[in-house]
Design goal:
alpha/beta; Arc Repressor Mutant, subunit A; 5 strands; globular
């Protein structure tokens, strides 16, 4: 069975991606929250068929962090995933030796296609993303209450749980989630949580 390691310090995002790849494509997924964890997993279990590294997790940097994992996982491929990195960063990642750059905003079906592409020995380059000259927009202004709700989303809590924690009506939380999604240009609550973390909004 194909073994994939995903290293990302955002538990909700990491588990969402891992669960999708495992349940939809049948890959065997392993997880860790940071660069040191990834290196420890590789040392303990041997090279994975593919390692996916989050660009903003603890310990990660260019080119040293990426090179360390590439060397440890050789000869198998290593790719980078990110929700906020600019096209310039993506180009640097590929130039540094990564076998792919996967924006977290890509469609689920495209994610699996990209992973299969890399596993087949090719390099995945998101051409439309790389040709874009615009990086992620500046972080939007959030009210203190919106940040509280966003923190709840990042913890994987439901609207009802967030409402109870903040002593709010559930309908009020729903409105905040809708506003957060609009301000962050997020497709759903998981995407909003991912962007909020990557933009240091919590």
């Amino acid at each position: 069975m194909t073994r994939i390691l995903i290293a990302d310090d955002h538990e909700l995002v990491r588990e969402t991606i891992a669960s999708y790849l495992q349940n939809t494509a049948g890959f065997q997924l392993f997880q860790c929250p940071d660069l040191n964890g990834a290196l420890a997993k590789i040392a303990a279990l041997g090279p994975f068929d593919l390692v996916l590294l989050d660009y903003t997790m603890p310990g990660m940097n260019l080119p040293d962090g990426l090179n360390a994992v590439i060397e440890a996982n050789a000869p198998m491929p290593v790719a980078m995933i990110s929700g906020t990195a600019s096209p310039d960063i993506a180009r640097r990642v590929l130039e540094a030796g990564a076998k792919g750059f996967l924006p977290k905003t890509m469609a689920s079906e495209t994610l699996i296609s990209a992973v299969r592409h890399i596993l087949a020995g090719d390099t995945y380059t998101p051409r439309q993303f790389l040709e874009s000259t615009a990086s992620h927009p500046d972080a939007p202004h959030l009210t203190p209450r919106e940040r509280d709700v966003l923190r709840g989303l990042c913890d994987g809590k439901s609207n009802k749980e967030i409402a109870r924690d903040l002593d709010l009506q559930e309908v009020t939380v729903k409105l905040h989630v809708k506003t957060l999604s609009r301000k962050l240009d997020a497709r759903n609550r998981t995407h909003a949580a991912m962007l909020g973390r990557d933009l240091d909004l919590i």
